[in-house]
Structures are given as structure tokens and as C-alpha cells.
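User: Sequence for GTPase Era below. C-alpha cells please.
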Amino acid sequence: MTDPTTGQGTSGPTRCGYVALIGAPNAGKSTLINALVGAKVSIVSRKVQTTRSLVRGIVLDGPAQIVVIDTPGIFAPKRRLDRAMVTSAWGGAGDADVVALLVDARKGVDEEVEAILAVLKGMGRRKVLILNKIDAVERPRLLDLAADLNARLPFDETFMISALGGDGVDRVRTRLAAMMPEGPWLFPEDEVSDVPLRMLAAEITREKLFERLHDELPYQSTVETDQWKTMKDGSARIEQTIFVTRESQRKIVLGKGGQTIRAIGEAARKEIAEAADTKVHLFLFVKVREDWIDDPARYREMGLEFPKE
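Assistant: C-alpha cells for GTPase Era:
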């Protein structure tokens, strides 16, 4: 068994466990999990509530394997999809060995963080606090924020990081590894996620969709991979459908003369090819499905449980 960070063999008993990464929307959970894993396993967007299902990234540190669960942002749910996402997030936290609360240091303790703290108090799990985006906050304010949060709920450890810049991420990885229980690894050492490639491809396209149309497209849009066919030359022919709820949204996604959908497809194709390690031929289709947000099949496709009214 080899430590991927040093290329040298590891010694001592192996460790393996689950860490649930929770927080308010846009705290930086997806950016952090990608930094911990060292590969893209979760989509990153400045549009809130883009992570919808539980994404498990597999992190190695010496003899330890850490399965980090990137949960949807926890917020006050208003719609059926919101409720499914929040239920998924708390379900992931309840099953973890360690719960890591990620807080945007610029925002500090707002109503969303207070609501999360109230639930965490009743959870019998080891808890760590991670203050993110510290490069945008003066140190005295960071120390005050850490003290305030620990006074509200004592954490086993507190970390200060910049997930985007990488500052402090190595220490988080090392300390989480030490917290994992002894036991065999659950995944092969070259695996970075348990997310099926078809689902990751759909998530990559959804990320590019939001990047391109952040201010024009509601987050009630989804992408599904309909076909993944391996060609004779080893390349992949992939067909995906972008579901929107209105004809006006379909026109926005297509763009004048199809320019927007082509740009989205090209950006997605490059990242999917990198993830799949093969040449990719990507074909995108846009369909209007007004009631997709109330369709149980769409929730199953996203890995969510369909909530009843």
C-alpha cells in the first residue's frame, strides 16, 4: 500500500471512516472536497444550492482512507426539491464518523449557521469546525469567530483554511485521517469517488450550464446522461438531456443560432474527457418538462429520496 502524497509505502494499521462535510449554501464545500481528494468529484458554482445529492470523495493520507461526503447546502427548504436536498444532507451527517461544519468566515454566524448548530448539538458524533475563505478576513476577526462558534458548540478541532487557494487543506486532511477508526479500506487506492462516471458527466455539464447562465437560468434545471457508448476507437459517445421548466428557458440555453449550447457542450466535453481519460463526443439536447421537479424518476436519477407532501 502506497501513500499517494509521497509515493512511499505506509506502515501501521489501516484506518477508514466517513466525514460528512456540512454547511450553508456557498460555504465552499465542493471546492474543499475537490482540494482534499486532489481531483474533481463535485461541481463548483457561485450559484447556490448546486450540490444536490451526496457526493463521496475518497481521500488518502498515509494508512488512512477518508470517505468525505459532500452534502447539499443546508438551508430553510421551501420546495419539494429543497426538502429532498436538506434531508439528504442531514442523512449523510447522521451516518458519519466525523461531522465537519464548514463556515464562510466572511459571513460569520448567520441564521443558516445558527440553525445548523442547533441540530448539531443533539448529534452524538465527533465534530470539527472549518473556517473557510480566511484570505478575505483579518486574523483578529477570525479568532473572534472561532471563539464564538466554539462557545456555542465545543468542537474537537478548529481549522482555518482557504479551500480555493489550498491554505490549511493539508492539515485538515492529516487531522481527519488521525480521527478515522482502525479498519480495512473500503475502496481501491486509485479510486477518487464512488460517483458513477455517467452521473459525474451530467454534473459537469450542469456546472457549465450554471457558469454560462448564472443570472438567467433558475437552479430548477437538471442534466441527465441518457447514453454512454464506447466506440471502436475507445472514445465515448455521450448523449445528455438538459431539462428546464419553461420554453423561454429552453431558448436561453440554446442561445442565438445555438451558440450558447455549443459553448456549454465544448466546456463540458473537455472536463468529461479528462475525467473519463478518453476522447469524448458529447451531444446535448434541451427539453421542457414543466413537472420534472415533481417527478420521482428525476429524484432517483439525482440519488435523492422523493419527499412526499
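Residues 259-276 form the longest helix (18 residues).
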